[in-house]
Amino acid sequence: MIALNPFPSRTVTIYMAKAFVVRTLAILATLVLILQMMDLLSETGHILAYHGNGQAEELRYVSLRAPQIIATFTPFAVLLGTILTLSTMNQNSEIVALKASGLSAHQLLAPLIVASLGIAVLSFAFNDRIVSRATATLSVWKAGGYAPLPVDRGDRANVWVRDGDDLIQVAQVRGHGNAAQLSDVTLYDRQDGRMASIVRAPHGVRAGDGWRIGPATRFDVASGRLTKLGAVVIGHGVRPDQLTLASVDADAMSFGELYRAIRDLSDAGRPTKALSGAMWHKLSSPLSAVLMPLLGAISAFGLARSGKLFLRAVLGMALGFTYFLGDNFALAMGNLGAYPPFLAAWAPFLLFLLIGEAVLIRTEE
Predict the structure, then answer these.
(1) Spatial contact of 178 and 209, defined as CB atoms under 8 Å apart
(2) pLDDT confidence band for 251 (50 / 70 / 90)
(3) In this structure, are residues 132 and 251 in contact, taking their beta carbons and an 8 Å threshold?
(4) Which of 38, 132, 199, 326 has its CB 3.0 to 4.6 Å from that of 348, i.e. a possible disulfide?
(5) What is the pTM for the complete model shown?
(6) What is the C-alpha to C-alpha distance for residues 52 and 294, in angstroms, rounded to an integer?
(7) Is the CB of residue 65 less than 8 Å from the CB of residue 138?
């Protein structure tokens, strides 16, 4: 009985996987270094514009920005690492020798696919634990003009809610649900599209179907008179989730946090399709690394017959970059509501998986 082994020999498997991982990491390090330098040059002026900022703040910016660049360009590095590894092996006639020993194209790609699967798992963990936190911190820091950040306790800041014609601004929201506490509340009272008065209060808590704020003051726009009101109830019908979930940044949340936010928004009857697409994309994006050996495989085979190494390498890069364009397009369509969330996240992956398999089988198997 002949045992079917999807891999080459142990020696060849380790050799190919090691060469692939080393080249991928080298390309990723080079990309991150170049792109981080360019990004820092463009942002240094804004960082140093705040009085007191210096080299320490620049290094902090690099520590927060570098994880985003790594997450974005890891699939690109895997694609280029695949093409470089297979092209080098083909140029040295190693692919020809391995195929002459009876190995199929899928067996030759198996070590790279397994290695890229490991990269995908590490990439997901890195994105979920590090990139999401770095993105959240950098967004707040950048929005504050790179001023020193307060201690992050999970509070929401600068929340705006519409109450009919009126607008409510809350500087900080602590807690969740009916236990939410508001700080520095401002009610912009509008009548017939014109500002009538402004009500301000330092504190606010849930009261019935509204929010009790106090001690409040009311500034009348027409007369310019400032009146002390004490405790008043505003925002009748404004739900706690409108304050605690007023702004959900999918990139700044881990997969679990985003899942819980979507569930809370769904329970409140608010639209969640765009966020659901982003949640599924947190899985499909790291997993795209597994596609890269398949899409870049065109650079490995057929060279002995055609001799067009550079052309096949370019075709492999073009096929991989086309996937990234399709992935971004599908995600944009999902955000607009044109595609269902699951389809927006997974359709490009499944489509190019079939395309890569079709090209491989058509040309080599």
Answers:
(1) no
(2) confident
(3) yes
(4) 326
(5) 0.77
(6) 51
(7) yes
